[in-house]
Amino acid sequence: MIVGMNHFTVTAEDEQKTLAFYTGLLGLRVGHRPDLGFPGAWLYGNGPQAVLHLYFGRPVPAQRTGVIDHMAFTAQDLRAVKARFDQSGVAYELRQQAGAGTWQLFCHDPSGAKVELDFDPSETP
Q1: I want to staple 102 with a disulfide (CB 3.0 to 4.6 A). Which of 61, 66, 89, 97 is the partner?
Q2: Tell me, what's the pLDDT at 123?
Q3: Which parts of the sequence belong to the VOC domain (predicted)?
């Protein structure tokens, strides 16, 4: 039945900081979003489908992540991404997955959502 993940949704505490994080730092782009009757944004990677939906103007839940621990994206160019993080001052943890060798960069968005970026084992930090 399920053929893939469609999108994640984040309730953004600060619209400007959240958009700067996901578009400026992570490289997603704001794209088409139908009029849903409330403020928000749909963010796209390289494909035609929005991978992240943002809500603006809604209260952030007291339990920030609830039962969902994090969202993960497949990424490229670990060296450049790491340099952008270093320059931005956004805290992150970089580790190489045992066995598979996948590089995993973990960080938090401005509202506290945990984000994982996965890079091919052949890349070097």
Answers
A1: 97
A2: 96
A3: 4-120
Tokens of 10: 């984040």
CA distance 125 to 123: 7
Closest residue by Cα to residue 114 from 65, 51, 74: 65
Angle at 47 (CA atoms; ends 16, 10), nearest 5 degrees: 35
DSSP assignment of 6-75: --EEEE-S-HHHHHIIIIIIT--EEE-----SS-EEEEE-SSSSEEEEEE-SSPPPSSSSTT---EEEE-
pLDDT at 107: 97
Mind listing the domains of the chain with CATH numbers? 8-119 (3.10.180.10)
- The label of the residue with tokens 């994206």 reads 73
- The residues, any chain, with a CB within 8 Å of residue 58's CB and separated by 6 or more, are 11, 38
Q: Hey, CA dihedral for 59, 37, 27, 47, is it positive or negative?
A: positive
Q: Quote the CA–CA distance of 41 and 56 in Å, as a whole number.
A: 8
- Token output for 43: 């963010």
